[in-house]
Amino acid sequence: MQEFDHDLFVIGGGSGGVRAARMAAQRGARVALAEAGALGGTCVNVGCIPKKLYSYAAHYAEAFEEAAGFGWDLTPPRFDWARLKANRALEIRRLNGVYEQLLRSAGVTLVQGWAELAGPHTVRVNGQSFTARHVLVATGGQPQVPDLEGREHVITSDDIFDLEPFPARLVVVGGGYIACEFASIFNGLGARVTQLYRGEQILRGFDDDVRAFVSAEMVKTGVDQRLKTDVQSVARTPSGLRVTLLDGQVLEADAVLYATGRSPKIRGLGLEAAGVALSQGGAIQVNDGYQTSVPSIYALGDVTARIQLTPVALGEAMVLVDHLFGSGQRKLGYDFIPTAVFTHPNIGTVGYTEAEARARFGQVTVFKSEFRPLKHTMSGSSERSHMKLVVDTASDRVVGLHMVGADAGEIVQGFAVAMKAGATKAVFDATVGIHPTAAEEFVTMRTPVSTPA
């Protein structure tokens, strides 16, 4: 039997790669992990974590204003962009250290540098070759910017956290969740934000009611949202950046953020030389067991472009490790995966949109509720919340649950457990709500809305 340096060599130190390496090592496997950048990948360094921290920061502006309605008199607050950036950087460095400690304490060998496949069982890093029985590619994704005149003047989500100086005028190009989150965040921090999207409505793929509701709430808070438009060119001028739109309109900006999609991070990995098959979009093709066209090489997470969410990559890593070094019984279901979008207000969603449910199940029953949260009866804010249930009429199973409002992600997580377990509308109706909360609305909606079959 051929001898290898390692049982598993992981390329990429993001969420999926770190989890796979650590869990495999804890099962007694000889594991090495190569990472060219900071441990934690996109999520920890330039994604979920810093974005959520900045979202918290932006919410304080609203909180200061709302405090007056509850009897608090405050002197005008002053926002310090440099302090926020410095404190965020400290926290990210702390998390980088936590990831390193977790790996080292599990017995994983860390290799700093860019890894390249040199065969079905060989990985080369900094001129040194490593052999492994199994190789896992978990390099994640990266922002993509289309070719346009002045492309060199725009930034992506990788650059936004340390932007200097703070952009008093920010143009955000894109209508997906990343674009909407940063539009909300920088609007809350005090920038004048213009969001451009070429489509009919932001957040394609989300429930249509959610899309329309969030769009209206964002506009209400001050985001200048312009739909069915796109950028023709970006040019630098003495006063900043000049953004020319396809219809000839011109915008002045201090920064232009492109959030128009992400692509798998595969360049320089040696995939083609190793014989690893790619999809037309450049993602690594895998079977249900995350195995590529080369039997000894596996891939998971964003580099496969299946569902690009950190918890999905973590779940895939657990399944793969169990398959390679365990009983092989663990599975990951891709239905009813909850997710949140940290716009202002937040979105929480799990299951099918109304349109998807009608296409999948035929007849559905829809319940909706829109209301002013109790907090805002005294805060002075005009923010409203929206909740929606989509029920498969034949089985009475709740197949879609959507919320726009404060802490939507925190609320929807618990309901996702019930939906994964197959909860019916009757179960929701029989559940006692917690009063007074927004969450109780999901178990008190009784009258379906009139919608076409």
Instruction: Sketch the major β-sheet.
Output: 7 strands, mixed
How would you classify the quaternary structure? single chain
- Uncertain stretches: none
Which structural class do the helices and strands define?
alpha/beta
What's the overall geometry?
globular
Radius of gyration: 24 Å
CATH superfamily of the largest domain: FAD/NAD(P)-binding domain
Proportion of residues in extended strands:
15-25%
For the record, give the distance between the C-alpha atoms at the N and C termini, rounded to a whole number.
62 Å
Mean pLDDT metric: 97
Whole-number tally of structural domains: 3
CATH architecture identity of the largest domain:
3-Layer(bba) Sandwich
Number of helical stretches of at least 4 residues: 12
The CATH class of the largest domain: Alpha Beta
Overall helicity: 25-40%
**Number of strand elements:** 21
CATH topology heading of the largest domain: FAD/NAD(P)-binding domain
Short description:
Helix content is 31%, strand content 24%.
What does the model show?
The protein is of the alpha/beta class and 453 residues long. It folds into 3 domains: 6-143 and 263-325, FAD/NAD(P)-binding domain; 151-260, FAD/NAD(P)-binding domain (3-Layer(bba) Sandwich), CATH 3.50.50; 339-443, FAD/NAD-linked reductase, C-terminal dimerisation domain (Enolase-like, domain 1, 2-Layer Sandwich), CATH 3.30.390. The protein is built from 12 helices and 21 strands. The protein has helices at residues 15-26, 41-46, 48-66, 81-106, 177-189, 208-221, 271-274, 310-325, 354-361, 376-379, 408-420, 425-430; strands spanning 6-11, 31-35, 109-112, 115-117, 122-125, 128-137, 141-143, 169-173, 192-197, 224-227, 231-237, 240-245, 250-253, 255-258, 262-264, 297-299, 339-341, 347-351, 364-371, 385-392, 398-404. Strands 1, 2, 3, 4, 5, 6 and 16 form a 7-stranded mixed sheet that branches. A 5-stranded antiparallel sheet has the order 17-18-21-20-19, sandwiched between helices. Strands 10-9-8-14 form a 4-stranded parallel sheet, with helices on one face. Helix 1 packs parallel to helix 8 and helix 3 crosses helix 5 (177-189). The radius of gyration is 24 Å and the shape is globular. The N and C termini lie far apart (62 Å).
